[in-house]
Amino acid sequence: MNLEGKIALVTGASRGIGRAIAMELSAGGAFVIVNYNGSESAAAETVRAIETAGGQAEAWQCNVADYGACEQMINGVLEKYKHIDILVNNAGITRDNLLMKMSEAEFDAVIDTNLKGTFHTMRFVSRQMLKQRSGRIINLASVVGIVGNAGQTNYAASKAGVIGMTKTAAKELAARGITVNAIAPGFIETDMTDKLSEKIREQMNAQIPLGRFGKPEYVAKAAAFLASDDASYITGQVLNVDGGMVM
Ligand code: NAP
């Protein structure tokens, strides 16, 4: 995989899957913008890890749920680095609750970050990628957006929405050589899944044919492939990285 000279923006790269994707894209030679919202020191740690491994990166604060802030971030990156070749929409949150107990605030928070956040960055990056006549967009969905999950009405809606937007953007941008794909992870060990009870973890594990939870690095390898020239004829797809959980 050769990503030399590419500028990559990875949202939510301070921790978890986003950090692993930032590291993997950097290992391929890309300069990585490490976006974060609240975790400034964790984002600095991602940048340090990239630099220690011989790569280059810069941390960039932006709440992806904020339309104007996303416009500012992307304009700022373009002013400084002149192009954006890879956009990975990874920032995401959960606010789980049963349907009959879910508050409007819980529903809105998840939609605003996971779904609207993905729209915001794609909206502002697409103009530049159309001008460049090239680009790679990779959106983090979830198997939950395909099969649903009790207690995650908001999250499932956001991720099903991400899949619909991915396919739509893929159709709109294909004529200029831009590919747009989604990755649907299953159960990956990060802060997001750490908070689940032992009972839920056991139930989840029982549904994974490969018999183990995933690591952020597994998702990062798939993202790096989709970002590479080797994936130039793949667009509008949803790639499950889930140990066979959904097939
Ligand atoms: P995580 O460990 O909780 O990390 C979430 C990341 O998103 C953090 O870097 C966080 O940054 C960032 N973030 C959250 N809200 C943001 C906002 N408004 N603006 C900018 N950044 C924001 O989560 P993860 O498990 O790595 O998940 C990464 C993605 O994969 C998410 O989209 C998630 O839905 C998806 N996914 C995960 C799993 C899994 O099993 N872990 C499964 C399927 C899909 P700050 O800390 O700076 O706020």
UniProtKB/TrEMBL annotation:
Gene Ontology MF terms in the entry: 3-oxoacyl-[acyl-carrier-protein] reductase (NADPH) activity
Stored InterPro entries: 3oxo_ACP_reduc (IPR011284), KR_dom (IPR057326), NAD(P)-bd_dom_sf (IPR036291), Sc_DH/Rdtase_CS (IPR020904), SDR (IPR050259), SDR_fam (IPR002347)
The protein's Enzyme Commission number: 1.1.1.100
Record-annotated Ketoreductase domain positions: 6-186
Pathway the protein contributes to: Lipid metabolism; fatty acid biosynthesis
Domain of life: Bacteria
Transferase among keywords: no
Pfam families found in the cross-reference section: adh_short_C2
Entry keyword Chaperone: no
UniProt enzyme class: oxidoreductase
PROSITE patterns named among the record's database cross-references: ADH_SHORT
Reactions catalysed according to its record: a (3R)-hydroxyacyl-[ACP] + NADP(+) = a 3-oxoacyl-[ACP] + NADPH + H(+)
Keywords of this entry: Fatty acid biosynthesis, Fatty acid metabolism, Lipid biosynthesis, Lipid metabolism, NADP, Oxidoreductase, Steroid metabolism
UniProt function note: Catalyzes the NADPH-dependent reduction of beta-ketoacyl-ACP substrates to beta-hydroxyacyl-ACP products, the first reductive step in the elongation cycle of fatty acid biosynthesis.
Quaternary structure and partners: Homotetramer.
NCBIfam families noted in UniProt: 3oxo_ACP_reduc (TIGR01830), PRK05653.1-3 (NF004198), PRK07231.1 (NF005559), PRK12826.1-2 (NF009466)
Family: Belongs to the short-chain dehydrogenases/reductases (SDR) family.
Record protein name field: 3-oxoacyl-[acyl-carrier-protein] reductase
Organism: Laedolimicola ammoniilytica
Gene: fabG
